[in-house]
Amino acid sequence: MDYSAYLVPLLLACTALFGVGRRVNVFDALAQGAEEGLTILLRILPNLVGLMTAVYMLRASGVLDLLGQLLAPLLVRLGIPPETAALLFIRPVSGSGALAIGSELMSAHGPDSYVGRVAAVMLGSTETTFYTIAVYFGSAGVHKTRYAIPAALIADLTGFVAAAWAVRLLFGT
User: pTM score > 0.70 for this model?
Assistant: First the structure.
């Protein structure tokens, strides 16, 4: 018998019992938390819509393919397969867009190919930087990100290079 289906209801029941034990009005606390969540959602939604629109416009216009062709010599010098260029540009912005590009790469080259493996490791070792910054900084009301974006993009670049290096080290090219 699989008991994992009972885990979430058990956690919710334990949380409610703990709240009742501490004399907290559990329903009011739940409603207040939901209200705060919706307020935060309304505050960050414009940023998310803008990011997603930009991602789809870049993909549809062919700009990503052009940038990939222009940067191919540099990517080869860094050890990154040029076929993954679109993934490099989309991953910091959109996780679902990056997953779609990763799926396309694996369909075209195969999941066990060098390009497929590098794409898979890149997806797992980097972050959706702009999405994360939009959500967290937007929910906290921070308007000036200072060094957060450059530092995060440098970390993403490091993750991309390390992904290609690790795949080459462990599996060869």
Answer: no
